[in-house]
Design brief:
Two copies of one chain form a homodimer.
Chain A (H helix, E strand, L loop, with lengths): L3 E5 L4 H12 L3 E8 L6 H12 L4 E5 L22 H4 L11 H16 L3 E3 L15 H14 L1 H4 L5 E3 L7 H11 L21 H13 L4 H5 L3
Parallel strand pairs in A: 1-2, 1-4, 2-3, 4-5
Protein backbone atom coordinates (compact mmCIF):
# COMPACT_ATOMS: atom_id res chain seq x y z
CA UNK A 1 0.00 0.00 0.00
CA UNK A 2 1.32 3.40 -0.94
CA UNK A 3 2.36 5.75 1.84
CA UNK A 4 1.59 9.32 0.90
CA UNK A 5 3.58 12.31 2.17
CA UNK A 6 2.72 15.97 1.70
CA UNK A 7 5.99 17.75 0.94
CA UNK A 8 6.19 21.50 1.49
CA UNK A 9 8.14 22.72 -1.52
CA UNK A 10 9.20 26.35 -1.58
CA UNK A 11 11.50 25.87 -4.53
CA UNK A 12 14.63 26.36 -2.43
CA UNK A 13 17.52 23.99 -1.97
CA UNK A 14 16.38 22.62 1.40
CA UNK A 15 12.74 21.91 0.55
CA UNK A 16 13.71 20.30 -2.77
CA UNK A 17 16.14 18.04 -0.94
CA UNK A 18 13.53 17.16 1.70
CA UNK A 19 11.15 16.19 -1.13
CA UNK A 20 13.78 13.87 -2.62
CA UNK A 21 14.42 12.38 0.84
CA UNK A 22 10.69 11.58 1.14
CA UNK A 23 10.75 9.90 -2.27
CA UNK A 24 13.91 8.02 -1.34
CA UNK A 25 12.22 6.74 1.84
CA UNK A 26 9.50 5.14 -0.29
CA UNK A 27 6.80 7.74 0.16
CA UNK A 28 4.58 8.84 -2.69
CA UNK A 29 5.21 12.57 -2.41
CA UNK A 30 2.64 15.25 -3.19
CA UNK A 31 4.21 18.69 -3.37
CA UNK A 32 2.55 21.71 -1.78
CA UNK A 33 3.74 25.22 -2.53
CA UNK A 34 2.38 28.31 -0.88
CA UNK A 35 2.24 31.84 -2.20
CA UNK A 36 2.08 33.84 1.01
CA UNK A 37 2.85 37.14 -0.70
CA UNK A 38 6.63 36.67 -0.65
CA UNK A 39 8.48 39.24 -2.76
CA UNK A 40 10.70 36.43 -4.10
CA UNK A 41 7.75 34.71 -5.71
CA UNK A 42 10.24 33.47 -8.26
CA UNK A 43 10.88 30.50 -5.96
CA UNK A 44 7.43 29.15 -6.88
CA UNK A 45 8.57 28.82 -10.52
CA UNK A 46 11.42 26.65 -9.27
CA UNK A 47 8.98 24.54 -7.26
CA UNK A 48 6.78 23.98 -10.32
CA UNK A 49 9.77 22.99 -12.44
CA UNK A 50 11.09 20.52 -9.85
CA UNK A 51 7.69 18.86 -9.29
CA UNK A 52 7.14 18.54 -13.03
CA UNK A 53 10.61 17.06 -13.41
CA UNK A 54 9.84 14.14 -11.12
CA UNK A 55 6.23 13.94 -12.32
CA UNK A 56 4.47 14.25 -9.01
CA UNK A 57 1.23 15.92 -8.12
CA UNK A 58 1.75 19.53 -7.14
CA UNK A 59 -0.75 21.72 -5.36
CA UNK A 60 -0.43 25.49 -5.17
CA UNK A 61 -2.20 27.47 -2.48
CA UNK A 62 -2.38 31.21 -2.42
CA UNK A 63 -2.76 33.05 0.88
CA UNK A 64 -1.20 36.51 0.61
CA UNK A 65 -0.70 37.76 4.18
CA UNK A 66 -1.94 41.37 4.17
CA UNK A 67 -0.39 42.36 7.50
CA UNK A 68 3.27 42.34 6.42
CA UNK A 69 5.65 42.38 9.38
CA UNK A 70 8.55 40.81 7.49
CA UNK A 71 11.20 41.92 5.03
CA UNK A 72 10.04 39.05 2.81
CA UNK A 73 6.55 40.57 2.58
CA UNK A 74 7.12 44.30 2.78
CA UNK A 75 9.61 46.02 0.49
CA UNK A 76 9.88 48.89 2.98
CA UNK A 77 11.63 46.59 5.48
CA UNK A 78 15.27 46.10 4.44
CA UNK A 79 16.59 42.60 3.84
CA UNK A 80 19.88 42.22 5.79
CA UNK A 81 22.93 42.16 3.52
CA UNK A 82 26.55 41.05 3.64
CA UNK A 83 26.37 39.40 7.06
CA UNK A 84 28.65 36.50 7.80
CA UNK A 85 27.31 33.14 9.02
CA UNK A 86 27.96 33.93 12.69
CA UNK A 87 26.03 37.19 12.42
CA UNK A 88 23.17 35.41 10.62
CA UNK A 89 22.97 32.87 13.44
CA UNK A 90 22.36 35.62 16.03
CA UNK A 91 18.80 36.56 16.93
CA UNK A 92 15.71 36.67 14.78
CA UNK A 93 16.22 38.58 11.53
CA UNK A 94 13.80 40.91 9.73
CA UNK A 95 13.17 38.11 7.22
CA UNK A 96 11.28 36.16 9.91
CA UNK A 97 7.64 35.83 8.79
CA UNK A 98 5.38 35.61 11.85
CA UNK A 99 3.97 32.10 12.27
CA UNK A 100 4.93 31.15 8.71
CA UNK A 101 5.69 27.51 9.35
CA UNK A 102 2.53 27.24 11.48
CA UNK A 103 0.50 28.49 8.51
CA UNK A 104 2.37 26.17 6.13
CA UNK A 105 2.01 23.12 8.36
CA UNK A 106 -1.67 23.79 9.04
CA UNK A 107 -2.38 23.87 5.30
CA UNK A 108 -0.26 20.75 4.80
CA UNK A 109 -2.13 19.05 7.66
CA UNK A 110 -5.50 19.81 6.08
CA UNK A 111 -4.28 18.41 2.76
CA UNK A 112 -2.70 15.41 4.52
CA UNK A 113 -5.92 14.57 6.32
CA UNK A 114 -7.98 14.72 3.11
CA UNK A 115 -5.48 12.51 1.28
CA UNK A 116 -4.76 10.14 4.14
CA UNK A 117 -1.08 11.09 4.14
CA UNK A 118 1.10 9.63 6.87
CA UNK A 119 3.66 12.39 6.94
CA UNK A 120 4.40 15.99 6.16
CA UNK A 121 7.93 16.77 5.02
CA UNK A 122 9.45 20.19 5.59
CA UNK A 123 12.95 21.34 4.63
CA UNK A 124 13.54 23.40 7.78
CA UNK A 125 16.94 23.33 9.39
CA UNK A 126 17.97 24.90 12.65
CA UNK A 127 21.74 25.16 12.39
CA UNK A 128 21.98 28.02 9.95
CA UNK A 129 18.81 29.68 11.18
CA UNK A 130 18.97 29.21 14.90
CA UNK A 131 17.01 32.45 15.19
CA UNK A 132 13.87 31.10 13.51
CA UNK A 133 11.80 29.60 16.33
CA UNK A 134 9.63 27.58 13.96
CA UNK A 135 12.56 25.56 12.62
CA UNK A 136 13.33 23.63 15.81
CA UNK A 137 12.56 19.98 16.63
CA UNK A 138 10.60 20.92 19.77
CA UNK A 139 8.33 23.08 17.62
CA UNK A 140 7.64 20.21 15.22
CA UNK A 141 6.87 17.90 18.14
CA UNK A 142 4.42 20.51 19.49
CA UNK A 143 2.75 20.58 16.08
CA UNK A 144 2.35 16.80 16.13
CA UNK A 145 0.69 17.08 19.57
CA UNK A 146 -1.63 19.74 18.14
CA UNK A 147 -2.69 17.47 15.28
CA UNK A 148 -3.39 14.65 17.71
CA UNK A 149 -5.83 16.96 19.49
CA UNK A 150 -7.28 18.90 16.59
CA UNK A 151 -7.91 16.60 13.64
CA UNK A 152 -10.34 13.80 12.91
CA UNK A 153 -7.52 11.41 12.12
CA UNK A 154 -5.70 12.51 15.28
CA UNK A 155 -8.57 11.72 17.63
CA UNK A 156 -9.01 8.41 15.79
CA UNK A 157 -5.42 7.55 16.71
CA UNK A 158 -3.86 8.04 13.28
CA UNK A 159 -0.64 9.99 13.44
CA UNK A 160 0.51 12.57 10.91
CA UNK A 161 4.25 12.76 11.39
CA UNK A 162 6.06 16.07 10.86
CA UNK A 163 9.28 15.03 9.20
CA UNK A 164 12.06 17.60 9.02
CA UNK A 165 14.87 15.36 7.78
CA UNK A 166 17.39 18.20 7.44
CA UNK A 167 16.75 19.89 10.76
CA UNK A 168 20.14 19.01 12.22
CA UNK A 169 22.14 19.18 8.96
CA UNK A 170 24.72 21.74 7.95
CA UNK A 171 24.12 23.38 4.58
CA UNK A 172 27.15 21.59 3.12
CA UNK A 173 25.71 18.25 4.23
CA UNK A 174 22.35 19.10 2.65
CA UNK A 175 24.10 19.95 -0.61
CA UNK A 176 26.05 16.68 -0.62
CA UNK A 177 22.86 14.74 0.08
CA UNK A 178 21.05 16.65 -2.68
CA UNK A 179 23.75 15.75 -5.18
CA UNK A 180 23.61 12.11 -4.09
CA UNK A 181 19.81 12.02 -4.53
CA UNK A 182 19.90 13.78 -7.91
CA UNK A 183 18.12 16.99 -6.86
CA UNK A 184 18.23 19.46 -9.80
CA UNK A 185 20.08 22.07 -7.76
CA UNK A 186 20.50 24.29 -10.80
CA UNK A 187 16.76 25.03 -10.66
CA UNK A 188 16.48 25.72 -6.94
CA UNK A 189 16.05 29.33 -5.86
CA UNK A 190 17.34 30.51 -2.49
CA UNK A 191 17.70 34.29 -2.86
CA UNK A 192 15.35 36.42 -0.77
CA UNK A 193 15.10 38.92 -3.62
CA UNK A 194 13.08 38.27 -6.73
CA UNK A 195 15.56 39.50 -9.33
CA UNK A 196 16.64 37.56 -12.41
CA UNK A 197 19.81 36.35 -10.74
CA UNK A 198 20.60 35.69 -7.04
CA UNK A 199 21.76 38.89 -5.30
CA UNK A 200 24.68 37.16 -3.58
CA UNK A 201 24.43 39.38 -0.48
CA UNK A 202 21.26 38.36 1.39
CA UNK A 203 21.53 35.85 4.25
CA UNK A 204 20.11 33.09 2.10
CA UNK A 205 22.59 33.64 -0.75
CA UNK A 206 25.49 33.85 1.71
CA UNK A 207 24.55 30.61 3.49
CA UNK A 208 24.08 28.86 0.16
CA UNK A 209 27.48 30.02 -1.13
CA UNK A 210 29.17 28.99 2.13
CA UNK A 211 27.49 25.58 1.94
CA UNK A 212 28.66 24.91 -1.61
CA UNK A 213 32.15 26.10 -0.71
CA UNK A 214 32.35 23.79 2.32
CA UNK A 215 30.96 20.90 0.28
CA UNK A 216 33.62 21.51 -2.35
CA UNK A 217 30.98 21.69 -5.07
CA UNK A 218 30.26 24.43 -7.58
CA UNK A 219 26.74 25.84 -7.37
CA UNK A 220 25.09 24.72 -10.64
CA UNK A 221 22.54 27.54 -10.37
CA UNK A 222 25.37 30.04 -10.74
CA UNK A 223 27.15 28.04 -13.46
CA UNK A 224 23.97 27.80 -15.53
CA UNK A 225 23.54 31.56 -15.27
CA UNK A 226 27.25 32.26 -15.85
CA UNK A 227 27.59 34.12 -12.54
CA UNK B 1 -2.24 50.99 27.16
CA UNK B 2 -4.60 49.34 24.72
CA UNK B 3 -4.79 45.56 24.71
CA UNK B 4 -5.39 44.28 21.20
CA UNK B 5 -7.23 41.04 20.43
CA UNK B 6 -7.56 39.39 17.04
CA UNK B 7 -11.14 38.12 16.81
CA UNK B 8 -11.93 35.39 14.29
CA UNK B 9 -15.25 36.48 12.84
CA UNK B 10 -17.03 34.09 10.51
CA UNK B 11 -20.25 36.08 10.55
CA UNK B 12 -22.11 33.45 12.58
CA UNK B 13 -23.82 33.85 15.90
CA UNK B 14 -21.00 32.38 17.99
CA UNK B 15 -18.10 34.32 16.50
CA UNK B 16 -20.05 37.59 16.61
CA UNK B 17 -20.79 36.99 20.29
CA UNK B 18 -17.14 36.13 21.01
CA UNK B 19 -16.15 39.43 19.35
CA UNK B 20 -18.52 41.34 21.61
CA UNK B 21 -17.17 39.46 24.64
CA UNK B 22 -13.65 40.60 23.71
CA UNK B 23 -14.84 44.19 23.42
CA UNK B 24 -16.70 43.88 26.70
CA UNK B 25 -13.51 42.62 28.38
CA UNK B 26 -11.76 45.85 27.39
CA UNK B 27 -9.83 44.59 24.41
CA UNK B 28 -9.47 46.61 21.24
CA UNK B 29 -10.76 43.99 18.82
CA UNK B 30 -9.52 43.56 15.26
CA UNK B 31 -11.77 41.24 13.27
CA UNK B 32 -10.31 38.59 10.97
CA UNK B 33 -12.52 36.77 8.48
CA UNK B 34 -11.32 33.96 6.27
CA UNK B 35 -12.62 32.88 2.92
CA UNK B 36 -11.50 29.24 2.80
CA UNK B 37 -13.71 28.36 -0.15
CA UNK B 38 -16.84 27.74 1.94
CA UNK B 39 -19.97 27.36 -0.17
CA UNK B 40 -21.82 29.56 2.34
CA UNK B 41 -19.60 32.53 1.58
CA UNK B 42 -22.62 34.62 2.45
CA UNK B 43 -21.44 34.51 6.08
CA UNK B 44 -18.57 36.83 5.13
CA UNK B 45 -21.12 39.54 4.19
CA UNK B 46 -22.49 39.23 7.71
CA UNK B 47 -19.00 39.55 9.15
CA UNK B 48 -18.36 42.73 7.16
CA UNK B 49 -21.64 44.24 8.28
CA UNK B 50 -21.03 43.47 11.96
CA UNK B 51 -17.46 44.83 11.94
CA UNK B 52 -18.62 48.00 10.19
CA UNK B 53 -21.43 48.38 12.71
CA UNK B 54 -19.05 48.57 15.66
CA UNK B 55 -16.43 50.47 13.61
CA UNK B 56 -13.49 48.18 14.14
CA UNK B 57 -10.68 47.24 11.81
CA UNK B 58 -11.55 44.18 9.77
CA UNK B 59 -9.09 42.08 7.81
CA UNK B 60 -10.18 39.59 5.17
CA UNK B 61 -7.90 36.77 4.12
CA UNK B 62 -8.60 34.50 1.20
CA UNK B 63 -7.22 30.97 1.18
CA UNK B 64 -9.49 28.70 -0.88
CA UNK B 65 -8.59 25.11 0.04
CA UNK B 66 -8.37 23.24 -3.26
CA UNK B 67 -8.45 19.74 -1.77
CA UNK B 68 -12.08 19.70 -0.60
CA UNK B 69 -12.78 16.89 1.81
CA UNK B 70 -15.78 18.58 3.44
CA UNK B 71 -19.43 19.16 2.64
CA UNK B 72 -18.75 22.86 3.26
CA UNK B 73 -16.21 22.93 0.43
CA UNK B 74 -17.48 20.38 -2.05
CA UNK B 75 -21.07 20.51 -3.31
CA UNK B 76 -20.84 16.80 -4.21
CA UNK B 77 -20.69 15.90 -0.50
CA UNK B 78 -24.17 16.12 1.03
CA UNK B 79 -24.78 18.38 4.02
CA UNK B 80 -26.63 16.36 6.69
CA UNK B 81 -30.28 17.41 7.06
CA UNK B 82 -33.07 17.14 9.60
CA UNK B 83 -30.99 15.58 12.36
CA UNK B 84 -31.94 16.26 15.96
CA UNK B 85 -29.45 17.67 18.47
CA UNK B 86 -28.53 14.25 19.87
CA UNK B 87 -27.75 12.93 16.39
CA UNK B 88 -25.70 16.03 15.62
CA UNK B 89 -23.65 15.47 18.79
CA UNK B 90 -22.60 11.97 17.60
CA UNK B 91 -19.35 11.54 15.72
CA UNK B 92 -17.67 13.85 13.23
CA UNK B 93 -20.03 15.06 10.48
CA UNK B 94 -19.31 15.60 6.77
CA UNK B 95 -19.24 19.34 7.46
CA UNK B 96 -15.95 18.90 9.35
CA UNK B 97 -13.25 20.82 7.44
CA UNK B 98 -9.88 19.15 8.01
CA UNK B 99 -7.64 21.29 10.23
CA UNK B 100 -9.86 24.36 9.74
CA UNK B 101 -9.35 25.90 13.15
CA UNK B 102 -5.62 25.18 12.92
CA UNK B 103 -5.50 27.16 9.67
CA UNK B 104 -7.65 29.94 11.16
CA UNK B 105 -5.62 30.16 14.37
CA UNK B 106 -2.30 30.09 12.51
CA UNK B 107 -3.39 33.06 10.39
CA UNK B 108 -4.72 34.83 13.48
CA UNK B 109 -1.41 34.12 15.27
CA UNK B 110 0.60 35.64 12.43
CA UNK B 111 -1.61 38.74 12.50
CA UNK B 112 -1.48 38.84 16.31
CA UNK B 113 2.29 38.73 16.33
CA UNK B 114 2.58 41.56 13.79
CA UNK B 115 0.12 43.72 15.75
CA UNK B 116 1.35 42.81 19.21
CA UNK B 117 -2.05 41.37 20.15
CA UNK B 118 -2.33 39.67 23.52
CA UNK B 119 -5.16 37.34 22.62
CA UNK B 120 -7.00 35.58 19.84
CA UNK B 121 -10.75 35.16 20.31
CA UNK B 122 -12.58 32.29 18.66
CA UNK B 123 -16.30 31.50 18.93
CA UNK B 124 -15.87 27.72 19.09
CA UNK B 125 -18.04 25.75 21.43
CA UNK B 126 -17.81 22.07 22.22
CA UNK B 127 -21.25 21.25 23.58
CA UNK B 128 -23.24 21.31 20.38
CA UNK B 129 -20.34 20.08 18.26
CA UNK B 130 -18.69 17.50 20.42
CA UNK B 131 -17.64 15.80 17.19
CA UNK B 132 -15.37 18.64 16.06
CA UNK B 133 -11.95 17.87 17.57
CA UNK B 134 -10.69 21.41 17.01
CA UNK B 135 -13.36 22.96 19.25
CA UNK B 136 -12.12 21.52 22.55
CA UNK B 137 -10.22 23.29 25.36
CA UNK B 138 -7.34 20.79 25.22
CA UNK B 139 -6.86 21.65 21.55
CA UNK B 140 -6.69 25.38 22.31
CA UNK B 141 -4.14 24.73 25.08
CA UNK B 142 -2.05 22.69 22.61
CA UNK B 143 -2.18 25.64 20.22
CA UNK B 144 -0.91 27.99 22.94
CA UNK B 145 1.99 25.59 23.58
CA UNK B 146 2.72 25.61 19.84
CA UNK B 147 2.88 29.42 19.76
CA UNK B 148 5.25 29.44 22.74
CA UNK B 149 7.60 27.26 20.69
CA UNK B 150 7.08 28.62 17.21
CA UNK B 151 6.82 32.40 17.28
CA UNK B 152 9.26 35.22 17.98
CA UNK B 153 7.02 36.60 20.71
CA UNK B 154 6.62 33.11 22.16
CA UNK B 155 10.34 32.48 22.58
CA UNK B 156 10.67 35.97 24.03
CA UNK B 157 8.19 34.95 26.73
CA UNK B 158 5.21 36.92 25.46
CA UNK B 159 2.05 34.87 25.51
CA UNK B 160 -0.71 34.96 22.89
CA UNK B 161 -3.76 33.60 24.67
CA UNK B 162 -6.31 31.57 22.71
CA UNK B 163 -9.60 32.70 24.20
CA UNK B 164 -12.68 30.63 23.42
CA UNK B 165 -15.14 32.29 25.81
CA UNK B 166 -18.12 30.23 24.63
CA UNK B 167 -16.45 26.84 24.60
CA UNK B 168 -18.52 25.46 27.48
CA UNK B 169 -21.75 27.36 26.73
CA UNK B 170 -25.03 26.00 25.48
CA UNK B 171 -26.41 27.70 22.38
CA UNK B 172 -29.27 29.19 24.42
CA UNK B 173 -26.74 30.70 26.84
CA UNK B 174 -24.76 32.17 23.94
CA UNK B 175 -27.94 33.74 22.57
CA UNK B 176 -28.85 35.26 25.94
CA UNK B 177 -25.32 36.64 26.28
CA UNK B 178 -25.48 38.01 22.73
CA UNK B 179 -28.73 39.84 23.48
CA UNK B 180 -27.25 41.23 26.69
CA UNK B 181 -24.15 42.51 24.84
CA UNK B 182 -26.17 43.99 21.97
CA UNK B 183 -24.92 41.68 19.21
CA UNK B 184 -26.91 42.39 16.02
CA UNK B 185 -28.20 38.83 15.81
CA UNK B 186 -30.44 39.68 12.88
CA UNK B 187 -27.35 40.01 10.70
CA UNK B 188 -25.58 36.84 11.79
CA UNK B 189 -25.56 33.93 9.36
CA UNK B 190 -25.43 30.35 10.60
CA UNK B 191 -26.80 28.26 7.72
CA UNK B 192 -24.32 25.93 6.00
CA UNK B 193 -25.99 26.65 2.67
CA UNK B 194 -25.49 29.87 0.79
CA UNK B 195 -29.09 30.54 -0.24
CA UNK B 196 -30.96 33.80 0.29
CA UNK B 197 -32.67 32.51 3.43
CA UNK B 198 -31.52 29.93 6.01
CA UNK B 199 -32.47 26.39 4.92
CA UNK B 200 -33.81 25.42 8.36
CA UNK B 201 -32.72 21.79 8.00
CA UNK B 202 -28.91 21.73 8.21
CA UNK B 203 -27.25 21.00 11.58
CA UNK B 204 -26.34 24.64 12.03
CA UNK B 205 -29.91 25.90 11.39
CA UNK B 206 -31.33 23.22 13.71
CA UNK B 207 -28.95 24.05 16.57
CA UNK B 208 -29.66 27.75 16.13
CA UNK B 209 -33.43 27.23 16.19
CA UNK B 210 -33.17 24.98 19.26
CA UNK B 211 -31.01 27.58 20.99
CA UNK B 212 -33.48 30.41 20.38
CA UNK B 213 -36.35 28.19 21.47
CA UNK B 214 -34.61 27.24 24.72
CA UNK B 215 -33.66 30.86 25.35
CA UNK B 216 -37.28 31.88 24.84
CA UNK B 217 -36.28 34.46 22.26
CA UNK B 218 -37.45 34.86 18.68
CA UNK B 219 -34.64 34.68 16.12
CA UNK B 220 -34.44 38.23 14.72
CA UNK B 221 -32.77 36.92 11.55
CA UNK B 222 -35.98 35.04 10.74
CA UNK B 223 -38.26 37.91 11.77
CA UNK B 224 -36.40 40.37 9.55
CA UNK B 225 -36.79 37.97 6.64
CA UNK B 226 -40.42 37.13 7.50
CA UNK B 227 -39.66 33.40 7.81
Amino acid sequence: MKRVAICLLSGGLDSATALYVARNQGYEPIALSINYGQLHLKEIESAIRIAEHIRIEHQLVSVPLPWGGSALLDSNIPIPEERDASEIAQGIPSTYVPARNTIFLSLAASFAEVRGAEAIFIGANMLDYSGYPDCRPEYFRAFERLLEQGTKCGVEGKVIMINAPLVHSKKSEIIKLAVQLGVPLEWTWSCYKGNDAPCGVCDSCILRAKGFQEAGIQDPALISKNI
